[in-house]
Every structure is written in structure tokens, then in C-alpha cells.
TrEMBL record:
One Pfam family named in its UniProt record: PUA_2
Pathway(s) this gene product operates in, as recorded in its UniProt entry: Sulfur metabolism; hydrogen sulfide biosynthesis; sulfite from sulfate: step 2/3
Function: Catalyzes the synthesis of activated sulfate.
Sites where the protein binds ATP: G240, L241, S242, G243, S244, G245, K246, S247
Protein name per UniProt: Adenylyl-sulfate kinase
Top-level class of the enzyme under EC nomenclature: transferase
Listed InterPro entries: APS (IPR002891), APS_kinase_dom (IPR059117), ATP-Sase_PUA-like_dom (IPR025980), P-loop_NTPase (IPR027417), PUA-like_sf (IPR015947), Sulf_AdTrans/APS_kinase (IPR050512)
Organism: Streptosporangium jomthongense
Positions in coiled-coil regions: none
């Protein structure tokens, strides 16, 4: 049941709300009062003496009418009702009270991996767990594996996926889980970083304990990319079916960037690369992967030196797209995956080159979308469907995030 007042918390508050609702912040059941927040800040305990490392607070603007006794529906950025906050105290700009879940959160990436402590504890059963909280990649798993063997414990990876680097942290955790083996568990935790490193570490330990950890290891801090976004290298990687419009959008984006100036732009179209860089390759999976790796290498080298590369291959396989992302991030550049998600029916209707008709007739083997799979990205940073919009509108859908993100000025 929703409440008469409503509000959309900011990103930090939404992350804390999710952890309150999931039980990861146990024994907390709601947002702290001003008095509790000051007590935690000063002494590491709530006013009732309960130990807790960091304030967990929520604010409403001064002109919002909610008062003690009122109920406020908390919504995500898309308007979905997540929880109801029953106001018990309002002081110093902070609104306190218990929260009651209305629906599972759907905002943010990798929602299917955001398991609750209860779900992980059920999976663990009586087995001990070594929890590893992550804010970046785990380059060396030796200590983790040795500690787990010593404890006879299951490794539990807890990627702390908050903010713009969240997807990269989750991908690093998924890669580490593959190397650790099928017994390793993983749960995405949207824990926002606290400014004080010692408090942040203690909060990570409390969350790990809530997930059933016998022991806790904090993963290494990630390497911070140098400089502001407009000085960093960037690869905009458009993927989609033949005829989806990705090449048209990519060319439009290139032209728009050249008109604005300020960035060195490299454009790598799939068909052009096939004729030059990848001449002689077939359309077998092995050669397709090699083609995408070559595109990724060139794009990463352009981005290594601060350039902006635009790529527009079909790139049907998720694992190969991930390899390209890793190439780019390994040189200290940023990567933006754009899924041009125009439906197959529309792509086939356009069929400018007659390729779909030939594939349907069996004249083209291993044709993506017909006789060979296209693995739709579940990690796309941006999704564009060109079915019912103009080229200029589609280009704008890609250009605007670049401007908002600071990569283009």
C-alpha cells in the first residue's frame, strides 16, 4: 500500500535503502535520526548504545510536508515504488524512520545478481564462507584461494557496485568467479563508499557478516583513471544486427563530434575493417572473434593516447565484446557499449544489401540473426532502437550521454 507523500531519494540514499531492505545493514531497519547520526559520527554507536560504523541517513527538502507519523513512498528514478518510510523524527534536515519494502529494486545494472543475505545464507547452509568485498579487479587470487583452503570455506564475492564504476566491478567479480570455480558464490551489493577508509572498511566487514561470512578480505582499491573525462581516451562501441542502423548512427556521431571539435576521432566501421584490417578472414566464429579483437586493439590504441574511437561491428558474441572492453580499460581509457537494438523484423525489412533474403534461402551460412546467434548485451551502457526515430534523433541519443559524462565539451 502506497503512502500519501512520495519522494525519489538520491543515488546514495537509494543504495542505502536497498541494503536496509535486504538486511545487509542489520540490525538497522530504517534511516537514522539526526541524534543517532551524530552519535555514530562521534562515538561509533547509536543513541541506544548499539555499535554501528557510519551514518545511514535520508533527507527531504525543507518545503516537503511530511511530518512525524506520516508515510512517504520512496520511488526509484523510473518511478517504481520501492518502499514506504514511516517518519518518526525530522530534525536538522534529516528524516528518520523504519522502511517497509513494496517491490524488489530494478534500477541499476545486474539486478539478477543482487541477492539478499538471506538468499546467500540459504545457499551456504552450514558451510563457512570467506567473503571478499570488491571495489576493483582481483588480479591475484592466490591469497583468497589459500585462505579458503585453510578455512575449508566457500569463497563469496561481494562486488560493491555503486556509482559509474559499478558495472566494471561486477564484471571483474564474474571473471574472478570463473577462475575460482563453480563453488564460488557472488552477490552484488550497492554499498556506497564512505570517505574515511577505516570506517568504509568496518562497514564492509559488517555487510560481509550479514551475508554469513566467517572471515572477510577486502579487495584492493581500484586504479583511478587520470584526468577529467574530456582528456581521457574513450571507445564508443556500437553493436547490433545487420541493418540495425549502427553504421549510420556511428557515422552521424563521428560527423557531430568533428563539427564540435575538441577530440581526435577514429572511426572503425565493420565493413571497412573487413576489407582492410581483416581481409581474408571468413565468417566462422573463430574469425569473427579475431575480427572484433583487431577492431578492439586498434580502438584501444587510439584511446590509449586520449583519442575517441567509434566502432560499429555486428560483434554478436558477448565474450568477445567483453574482451574489447578489457583491452580498452587496461590502457586507462573509458568504454561505452551501445546496443543498437533495432528488432530483427525491422532489420530484415530494410535488407538494403539483400543479405537476409540470401540467408533465408540458405545462400549465406552462419548469418547473424538467421543461422547464427546474436547474443544481446545485458551490460550495455546505452540502448538505441532506430525503428521509429530519425538518424539525427538516434545520433543525439548517443551524443547526449557523452556530453553529460564530460567526455565531450
Amino acid at each position: 500500500m502506497t503512502a500519501p507523500f512520495e519522494w525519489t531519494p538520491d543515488a546514495h540514499e537509494l543504495a542505502d535503502l536497498e541494503l536496509l531492505l535486504s538486511g545487509a545493514f542489520q540490525p538497522l531497519t530504517g534511516f537514522m535520526s539526526s541524534a543517532d547520526a551524530h552519535s555514530v559520527d562521534g562515538h561509533g554507536v547509536l543513541t541506544d548504545g548499539t555499535s554501528w560504523p557510519a551514518p545511514v541517513t535520508f533527507a527531504l527538502p525543507d518545503d516537503h510536508p511530511a511530518a512525524p507519523g506520516d508515510r512517504v513512498t520512496l520511488r526509484d528514478p523510473e518511478g517504481a515504488a520501492l518502499a514506504v518510510l514511516t517518519v518518526t523524527d525530522r530534525h536538522d534536515g534529516l528524516v528518520a524512520g523504519p522502511v517497509e519494502a513494496l517491490d524488489a529494486p530494478e534500477h541499476g545494472p545486474f539486478a539478477r545478481l543482487r541477492l539478499t543475505p538471506a538468499e546467500i545464507r540459504k545457499e551456504l547452509g552450514e558451510r563457512p564462507a570467506l567473503a571478499v568485498t570488491m571495489r576493483g579487479p582481483l588480479d591475484d587470487l592466490g591469497e583468497i584461494e589459500a585462505t579458503a583452503r585453510e578455512l575449508g570455506a566457500v569463497v563469496l564475492l561481494l562486488p560493491l557496485a555503486f556509482g559509474e564504476n559499478g558495472p566494471a566491478v561486477v564484471r571483474a567479480a564474474l571473471k574472478a568467479r570463473e577462475r575460482l570455480g563453480e563453488d564460488a558464490l557472488l552477490a552484488v551489493v550497492p554499498l556506497a563508499r564512505r570517505d574515511d577508509p577505516s570506517i568504509d572498511l568496518e562497514l564492509r566487514e559488517r555487510v560481509a557478516e550479514a551475508y554469513g561470512a566467517t572471515e572477510h578480505l577486502a579487495g584492493p582499491e581500484p586504479v583511478t583513471l587520470p584526468g577529467p573525462p574530456h582528456r581521457r581516451g574513450l571507445v564508443v562501441f556500437l553493436t547490433g544486427l545487420s541493418g540495425s542502423g549502427k553504421s549510420t548512427v556511428a557515422r552521424g556521431l563521428r560527423d557531430a563530434l568533428l563539427e564540435r571539435g575538441g577530440r581526435t576521432v577514429t572511426y572503425l566501421d565493420g565493413d571497412v575493417v573487413r576489407r582492410l584490417l581483416s581481409a581474408g578472414l571468413t565468417f566462422s566464429k573463430q574469425d569473427r572473434d579475431l575480427n572484433i579483437r583487431r577492431i578492439g586493439f586498434v580502438a584501444a590504441e587510439a584511446a590509449r593516447h586520449g583519442g575517441l574511437a567509434i566502432c560499429a561491428p555486428i560483434a554478436p558474441y558477448a565474450a568477445t565484446r567483453e574482451e574489447v572492453r578489457e583491452m580498452v580499460e587496461a590502457v586507462g581509457a573509458d568504454f561505452l557499449l551501445v546496443h543498437v537494438a533495432t528488432p530483427l523484423e525491422e532489420c530484415e525489412r530494410r535488407d538494403r544489401k539483400g543479405l537476409y533474403a540470401k540467408a533465408r534461402a540458405g545462400l549465406i551460412p552462419e548469418f547473424t540473426g538467421i543461422s547464427d546467434p546474436y547474443e544481446e548485451p545485458d551490460d550495455a551502457d546505452l540502448v538505441v532502437d532506430t525503428t521509429s526515430i530519425s538518424v539525427d534523433q538516434a545520433v543525439r541519443q548517443v551524443l547526449d550521454p557523452l556530453i553529460r559524462g564530460g567526455w565531450v565539451r
